[in-house]
Structures are given as C-alpha cells and as structure tokens.
Amino acid sequence: ITAAADAWACGAAGLPKPWQPQKPVLPVEGMRNVLITSALPYVNNVPHLGNIIGCVLSADTFARYCRLRNWNTLYVCGTDEYGTATETKAVEEGLTPQEICNKYNAIHTDIYRWFDISFDYFGRTTTPYQTTIAQDIFQRLLARGFLLQDTVEQLRCEDCQRFLADRFVEGTCPFCSYEEARGDQCDKCGKLINAVELKHPQCKLCKGVPVVKPTKHLFLDLPKLEERLEPWLEQSWATGDWTANARYITRSWIRDGLKPRCITRDLKWGTPVPLDGFRDKVFYVWFDAPIGYLSITANYTDQWERWWKNPQQ
C-alpha cells in the first residue's frame, strides 16, 4: 500500500517507460515473456456475447494487464475450421466447407475488431502450416509407437458412397426413444451414443438408410502413457494451481484406466492423414484443433518455435 501511495504521489512522470516490442513479438532474453491464447472459437456460427465473455474477453483483459506491467506479451487466437460441424453447416447453406469458413472467419474477425479485442494476431486453422505441423506431430507419434490400428463398426450410406460421421446420422435414441437423436448424442436425454446403436438410422444428406460396415481407424495408444502420466500428475498437483474440478475429472480418468482414442474420421474436410491405407481419411478435429494454437503462431511468425519450444524463456 505504501509503495502504491508513493507511486501515485509521483504521478505519471514516475511511471516506467512503456515497453514497445518489435514486430513480430518474440521472446526477449532477460524479460518476462508471456504467450496468451483464447480457446479457438468454432467457425460455423456467429459469435455472441456469451462466447466473447466465456474465453476471449478474459484473455484480452489479462493481455492488457501484462502489457501494462511491461511484460513482453503475445496474444494469439483464430477460428477453428475443420470437422463435421463445418461440413453439416455447408450442406445447410449450400456452400462448400471452405466458403463457410471464409464467410464466418470474416464475421468473427469483424466482431472482435468491433469489441477492440487486442489480439496481436487472429488467424485460422485451414492453413498450410496447420497441415505441416499436425502431420509432423502425427509422424513423431507413429515413429515412437504411440499409435495403433483397429477396425470399428460404422454406418455407411451406400447411396452417398461414404461412411457417415456422427453428425451425418439421425435416428431414434436407444435410451429414451427420442426420434431426432444425433449419431453422437441425444439432445433429449443427454446420453452419449455410438451411431451404430441408433434405432431406425437415417443419412442426413440423402435420407437413405445406412448399413453397418467395418472400417479401419488409427488410435492414440493412451494406455502406454499411464505409467509416465501418473507421477507427472502427482508432481503437477503438488506444485501447480489445479482447480478442484480439474483434479477430480483427471483422477476419474486415471482411476478408470486410459483408453485408446480414435484420431481419424471418414470425412473430406480436415487435415489429411499421411499414411498408406488411411489417405482417404482426415484427422479427428480434437486431434487437429489444439495444434491450431501452434500453427496460428507460425502464420504470425516463422520463428514460432521460440514461443512454443522455449521453456527457459
């Protein structure tokens, strides 16, 4: 309190000179370097006030605080553009997925500019850097034995000549008999659904009746990480600022045992899988989208690794 009173008495003349980082903003030796991201907003709709308050505004407030503290700060964000929801929105509006992304990326950009959100860079995930970095991470996982192949039963529409991703299927919920349940979740009872469990399934694209057929997919072999993850979590819980809810959810995953997680989808819109036997598939958006933070930074500066692979600064 005394220090604050003394600083106030000195007036503006006593303030440190504002830090003006070079462009692009890069880590500086000897300074506190802060990289800030917001959760990437999904591109298939117009953002509303709740979206902005939920993630963008809090990060923007913190970025402004960091700059006032004269910390060397980079704040990046961008639209999350791959996945089934983009394809379904494109079908609804009679546009291509790329046209949908271009349309809504421009809308998002204008809205955040109107709110004066202080991004240093606002990008998107449909870029060559996204493909390069995501495929590189995939190849590293493959080389280290953290991927496995498995065959799963999936609905296929013979009329459309394609396996149907979760949101391209509707039918009757096997739990509550709601007649408009999606292939991933029932909006009435809230239960998660495997699309092949739906009663009276129907292809959303042509209204035809799909059939169950086997298809090969790639999985993250998460059980291989359990022995290394548990001691890391114990150390992180002891030294970090985890919320009670985050600890509880993480403990439940570990207690139940990690399961292999599918990272590929039978879609056209997404980052291509660079492996023979899977080149007609794309990466599941939840494998692909978090890499968007890296690729958006890479589109801002070709020295992006100085932010993402530089723990000493």
UniProtKB/TrEMBL annotation:
Xref: NCBIfam families: metG
UniProt domain Methionyl/Leucyl tRNA synthetase: residue ranges: 34-311
InterPro entries: aa-tRNA-synth_I_CS, Met-tRNA_ligase_1, Met-tRNA_synth, Methionyl/Leucyl_tRNA_Synth, MetRS_core, MetRS_Zn, Rossmann-like_a/b/a_fold
Species annotation: Sula dactylatra
Domain of life: Eukaryota
Designated gene of the protein: Mars_0
UniProt protein name: Methionine--tRNA ligase, cytoplasmic
Keyword list, A-Z: Aminoacyl-tRNA synthetase, ATP-binding, Ligase, Nucleotide-binding, Protein biosynthesis
Top-level taxonomy: Eukaryota, Metazoa, Chordata, Craniata, Vertebrata
GO biological process terms on file: methionyl-tRNA aminoacylation
